[in-house]
Amino acid sequence: MTAAEVGLRFPLYADPDTGRWTTTSRGSWTGGFWAGLLWLRALAYGSAHDRAEAVAGTGRLAPWAGQDTAARGLVLWYGTALAAGPGDDRAAAELRDRAARACLDAYDPELRVVPWGDAFGGPRLLARADGVPGLVPLLPCAPGGAAAARGHLTQHLALCLSEELPRPAWQASSGGGWTGCAEPAPGWSRTVAWLLLGVADGLHCVPEVRSMNGPAGDMKASGLWDAARHLMALRFDGPAPLVPHDGDRSGPVDTSAAAIEAVAALKLASLARGEGWHSEGDRLAGRAEAVLRRLCAHHLSPSGGLLDGCYDAARGIAVRHELVWGDFYLALGLAMLTGLVGPFAT
């Protein structure tokens, strides 16, 4: 239904009352999630038509390889990763490799990040939580990229976790330090979700990661599992709701953040069991399943889209809508839960 409506454009968010999609011509930072959904459909049903549409959707992402943005991780990892494995689409693999090399070239060894970039306007030298997922598994696809992935992940964690309520965005200053940005504000619904996803992928893709050092020595060395447990305590423990709010509890809920967290929890559950921590793995898998059940029972549209996602609460943009990345992570979480794909297929 969505594919027929959007044609050669990319869906961004859909009105909860009419179901009509707002689309973009190039996909913006969310285009990879649409291609990823097309690949999940091809994996589930296996038809030549579905596969051809997935191949074409990924092909339309190619111009993003040359854009100056850390969001290339979201676009070009999620838009290509599900094409890997048996029957791999060669064009998707080549695009993934080209994107990895371009992102590695953009890595700043002094800042220890691939900067957010200027593709969407605004300051270029930013470190943002949404610049972590996708980029962490993408960078190691390039020769020598694992070290950059390690630096990019640990620097973002050191910055974001330096405040009690994680601050999702930081700007590099001329003196070599970092200043916290006002937007997105601490309490942003997807901060913990994006960071947890990055940590899970980092533990899998660059397992030699063992310590993090803050930009001014303000963060004592600690393992990625410690960072994961800190983030999980913010969202998975005590009275934390299954679906987070944007800001405090007076803000709108964000089902897309919950779906991202469910995928991260399933990845971490697999890793925990691999370490022999079976009770921790069971707890994380149980949390993921509870979130996915809640989303399916209370937040689906009649056509199966994930409603009640919050694009931008501060600007009042699409605050209770179907969001393409929410649909993707819900579908990915269900695919992991049912065994259609493994925890690190993406």
Describe the structure.
The chain is mostly helical. The protein is built from twelve helices and six strands. The chain has helices at residues 2-6, 31-45, 48-59, 72-78, 90-106, 135-138, 145-160, 191-205, 224-235, 255-274, 278-298, 324-338, and strands at residues 10-14, 21-24, 126-128, 169-172, 178-180, 322-323. Strands 2-1-6 form a three-stranded antiparallel β-sheet. The chain has a three-stranded antiparallel β-sheet with strand order 3-4-5. Helix 2 (31-45) packs parallel to helix 4. The longest helix is centred in the last third of the chain and has 21 residues, at 278-298. The protein is globular.
Topology:
Layout: H1 2-6, E1 10-14, E2 21-24, H2 31-45, H3 48-59, H4 72-78, H5 90-106, E3 126-128, H6 135-138, H7 145-160, E4 169-172, E5 178-180, H8 191-205, H9 224-235, H10 255-274, H11 278-298, E6 322-323, H12 324-338
Helix pairs in contact: 2-3, 2-4, 2-12, 4-5, 7-8, 8-9, 8-10, 10-11, 10-12, 11-12
Q: How many beta-strand segments? A: 6
Main sheet specs: 3 strands, antiparallel
| Helix-and-strand structural type | mainly alpha
Query: If you average the pLDDT, what whole number results?
Result: 92
- Rg from C-alpha positions? 19 Å
Low-confidence stretches: 209-222
What general outline do the C-alpha atoms trace?
globular
How many helical stretches? Answer: 12
Question: Kindly, what is the distance between the CA atoms of the first and last residues, rounded to a whole number of angstroms?
Answer: 25 Å
Which strand order spans the largest sheet, edge to edge or round the barrel? 2-1-6
Q: Give the strand content.
A: 5-15%
The helix fraction, in percent, is 40-55%
User: Looking at the chains present, what oligomeric state does this protein adopt?
Assistant: single chain
